């Protein structure tokens, strides 16, 4: 199951030994290689269940485009405010709280 979750996010490299031994039950830790040119996600879905995703050691995360490697201030894709709605350059309409 853990390899499947990692596979949804990217390529699973390894599963933490403590996680594999079921010694820790509140969270799991897996090492996943992700494509940093694509937006990261904070939730994933598997078997109709929502999985909360937290990342370690990523560096800068842009809260405008969702990609790794730069901050919102230096985002080339950016989100433009227009008539109280935010329009992402990808053409998706987003409200102020998303």
Automatic annotation (TrEMBL):
Tell me yes or no: is Transmembrane among this UniProt entry's keywords: no
Q: Has keyword Zinc-finger?
A: yes
InterPro entries, A to Z: At4g02000-like, Zn_knuckle_CX2CX4HX4C, Znf_CCHC, Znf_CCHC_sf
CCHC-type domain location = 62-77
List keywords of the entry alphabetically: Metal-binding, Zinc, Zinc-finger
Instruction: Look up the domain of life of the source.
Output: Eukaryota
Q: Which GO terms describe its molecular function?
A: nucleic acid binding; zinc ion binding
Cited PANTHER family: DUF4283 DOMAIN-CONTAINING PROTEIN, GLYCINE-RICH CELL WALL STRUCTURAL PROTEIN 1.8-LIKE
Name-wise, this protein is: CCHC-type domain-containing protein
Q: Which organism is it from?
A: Dipteronia dyeriana
Identify the taxonomic lineage of the organism of origin.
Answer: Eukaryota, Viridiplantae, Streptophyta, Embryophyta, Tracheophyta
